Q: What sequence folds into this?
């Protein structure tokens, strides 16, 4: 990653940040690290699945 790249453009970091914010909003305070980790992985897997679906549609 170059200095000009935004860290949130990386799919995993974006998913981790979104999970942290969503968990903080849900808990109205400090988010649970385990629930945040699980949510981040779920968001990341969903993003990868969507990327693969778009690629398959484009390649067809």
A:
């Amino acid at each position: 990653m170059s200095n000009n790249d935004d860290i949130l453009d990386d799919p995993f970091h974006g998913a981790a940040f979104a999970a942290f914010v969503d968990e903080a909003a849900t808990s109205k305070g400090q988010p649970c690290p385990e629930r945040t980790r699980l949510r981040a992985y779920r968001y990341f897997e969903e993003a990868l699945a969507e990327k693969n679906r778009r690629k398959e549609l484009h390649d067809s």
